[in-house]
Design goal:
It comes from Trichoplax adhaerens (Trichoplax reptans). Keywords: Initiation factor, Protein biosynthesis, Repeat, Translation regulation, WD repeat. The chain is mainly beta. It has strands at residues 9-12, 18-22, 26-31, 36-42, 48-51, 57-61, 77-81, 87-91, 102-103, 109-114, 117-122, 125-134, 140-143, 151-156, 164-170, 179-183, 188-193, 199-205, 219-225, 230-232, 241-246, 252-257, 262-268, 273-280, 284-287, 293-297, 305-310, 316-321, 327-330, 336-341, 351-356, 361-366. It has a domain at 1-100: 6 Propeller (Neuraminidase). Helices cover 0% and strands 47% of the residues. It has a 4-stranded antiparallel sheet with strand order 1-2-3-4, with no helix packed on it. The protein has a 4-stranded antiparallel sheet with strand order 5-6-7-8, with no helix packed on it. Strands 9-10-11-12 form a 4-stranded antiparallel sheet, with no helix packed on it.
Length: 383
């Protein structure tokens, strides 16, 4: 038990066997379920954490600072080796938006966005650079979950009248992208790969809508794949794109979009609509880990209605409400889920609930102080 009054950040390793958090003075890593402290590092000004995929490393980041003793600044991005407990490497990285190093799933390489491109580091020796993708002005970068080959995706925003563009590369062949797409009306993007790492969805948006028709700015959705296909995904209703999610099977994706009540559509890899879920007050999509159930939910400024759809026959299983929810997490077995009401989004009514997808409320906890409920990513059997 940590009695420190502050927890700046908390994260699980990908397999759920390690838990790390930042308190006022240090960073602790414990082994689960025993709760044994296996590592303890100085926190400094750190406020962000990330495990590597095989939890061989822990990356920490804090705001960049200068001082009289260090006018050039000190390393604010540090990578710790969790086998030895020693510092593997340190870097100066000023932006929080892209601070997180990205590892390939096998940890053979580690990547960092730098001013003039993407630096590729040796996975077993983070201090050693082995390659570089040279490209100025990269705003967003993403690494595929595939390892044979590993794919890179980069995004450069609209600049001085020139269009924005996204490029996909097969590592280590950086001379020629396998797919690219240029377009206007893109200040920001979010990128998501399918399970195989062959296909990429790019949700592009502008800071404002010059037509004045939308508070959210203008938004578009693009599809790219390793065969060179690039498609502007056609949506059946104008308005914001609230949520875009791949199915765990990697062969289809779902989009919630359009002015309220929003539409929801399931697409295949050709970007053809498979199924229309109709219109309702929803803004989020949650596939269960097996991809057999799709939850369409309306959280945030909506009333918390949730629809659960059977993917096999595409029929509605259940529909019920979890008011004031700020978080939703499926259990690993895909039968249960948690909803939570957390600060700072909501300061009152904090707590969490455990549900079955049929609508049965199984457990409820109300808390006095703001907390988050997190699922440990291991097999869980509930009866």
């Amino acid at each position: 038990r940590d009695e420190s009054p502050k927890c700046k950040c908390l994260t699980f390793s990908h397999d759920g066997n390690l838990l790390a958090w930042i308190s006022d003075s240090d960073i602790k890593v414990i082994k689960l379920p025993e709760g044994e402290i296996v590592h303890q590092f100085p926190a400094g000004y750190s406020n962000s954490l990330a495990f590597s995929p095989k939890h061989s490393f822990l990356a920490t980041w804090g705001p960049y600072r200068i001082s009289d003793k260090a006018p050039q600044g000190t390393h604010n991005l540090v990578i710790w080796n969790l086998a030895s407990g020693e510092k593997s490497a340190g870097f100066i990285h000023k932006r929080h938006t892209d601070w997180k190093p990205l590892w390939s799933t096998d940890e053979e390489i580690c990547t960092r966005v730098v001013v003039d491109g993407v630096l590729v580091l040796k996975g077993s020796d983070i201090g050693t650079s082995i390659a570089k993708l040279s490209q100025d002005g990269i705003q967003e970068f993403s690494l595929s979950p595939s390892t044979n080959p590993i794919r890179f995706a980069t995004f450069n925003p609209t600049k001085k009248g020139a269009p924005a563009y996204v490029k996909m590369y097969n590592f280590p062949n950086f001379d020629r992208p396998v797919c690219q797409k240029s377009f206007y009306k893109a200040d920001n993007v979010s990128m998501s790969w399918n399970k195989t790492g062959k296909s990429l969805l790019l949700h592009a948006s502008t800071e404002s809508d010059k037509t004045g028709s939308s508070y959210y700015g203008e938004q578009s959705l693009y599809f790219l794949d390793d065969e060179g296909n690039s498609i502007h995904v056609s949506l059946a209703k104008t308005g914001p794109i609230y949520s875009v999610e791949w199915s765990p099977n990697g062969r289809e994706f779902c989009v919630v979009y359009g002015s309220m009540p929003a539409k929801a559509t399931l697409y295949n890899l050709k970007c053809d609509p498979i199924h229309e879920f109709g219109s309702s007050y929803r803004n989020l999509i949650y596939f269960n880990p097996q991809g057999t159930i799709i939850c369409l939910a309306g959280f945030g400024n909506l009333k918390g209605e949730m629809e659960f759809w059977n993917r096999q026959d595409l029929k509605l299983i259940s529909k019920f409400q979890a008011s004031d929810s700020t978080q939703f997490e499926w259990s690993p077995d895909g039968q249960y889920f948690a909803t939570a009401t957390t600060a700072p989004r909501l300061r009152q009514g904090n707590g969490y609930k455990i549900w079955h997808y049929s609508g049965s409320l199984l457990h409820e906890v109300q808390v006095i102080k703001p907390k988050e409920e997190l699922w440990e990513v291991t097999t869980v059997i509930l009866s």
